[in-house]
Amino acid sequence: MKFISSLVIATLAACAVGVHAQDVAAILKASDKFRMSADNLQVETQINIVNADGTPDKERKYKVFAQQNRQSLVIMQSPSEKGQKVLMSGDDFWLVMPDSQRPLRITPMQKLLGDASTGDVSTLSWAEDYTGKLVGEEACDTRAGARPQTCLHLTLTAARKGVTYQRIELWVGKTRYEPHRADLYVLSEKLAKQASFVFDKPDAPTTVVEMVLTDKVSNNKTTHIKYVSRKERQIPKEWLNPQFLVRGGTFE
After folding, report:
1. pTM assigned to the model
2. Hey, where are the domains in the chain?
């Protein structure tokens, strides 16, 4: 009888773990929707760097084509970077320079500007790229003067090699699952950045309009990634070929 009871308890525990894993996957999918409202998007993006003393540093503009199946194309728009492109396809990243005869292999951690890496600006899907588990419920906004709010705290572990961060501690809303903040860890388990998210409607959010990254390694500068506009757009397949990008062309 004791054996049967133990077997029943073990079976129920296994079922609970399975349901819990499904729940976490659903939470991550819902949270992703606040940043990626469709599988194929064109996103006009502006990045501003702010020094530790609050003074502005640099500004850059990018046109990002975020496509399904982990594919993204980033077109540099600012005069100092004109003609440069970054392509992500699965776990592979390429940088294409103006007048270059071949694309350069890069990593998702390679910087674009300030603390914004290629992986931060291109496609990042928590639901597809990470496995997660629920840690518990915690305060998700500890800034002075912020409205107290309780969030779900999730631990995310990289499910594939080509992701920017190996581990993410993520805090999302309890009802809508909107992302509030995240601690971003690299392969060495060092805390590289902290991210916070700004919404279109703070009391009833539907989309993230800005991600703020704070460097936790060296300079304490903040990088503001603003999503100026979004629209659904599926781009031609040849745009996602590094050899096509080398040959140049327009991307309108």
Report:
1. 0.83
2. 41-64+112-231
Name the one residue in this structure whose structure tokens are 């040849």: 238
pLDDT tens string 22-73: 599 999 999 999 998 888 999 999 999 898 888 998 899 999 999 988 899 9
Q: Is 71 exposed, middle or buried (0-12, 13-18, 19+ CB in 10 A)?
A: buried
Helix, coil or strand: residue 252: coil
Q: Which two tokens stand for residue 210?
A: 């800005």
Q: Output the CATH code of domain 41-64+112-231.
A: 2.50.20.10
Q: In DSSP terms, which residues pair with 113 in a beta bridge?
A: 116
| The two three-digit tokens of residue 127, written as one number | 């639901």
Closest by CA to 48, choosing from 229, 231, 206, 227, is 227
The rounded Cα 34 to chain-centroid distance in angstroms is 11
SS3 45: strand
Give the integer Cα–Cα distance in Å for 102 and 105.
Answer: 10
Instruction: Give tens-digit pLDDT for 133-171.
Output: 999 999 886 554 556 789 999 999 999 877 888 999 999
Spatial separation of the C-alpha atoms in residues 91 and 129, rounded to whole Å: 11
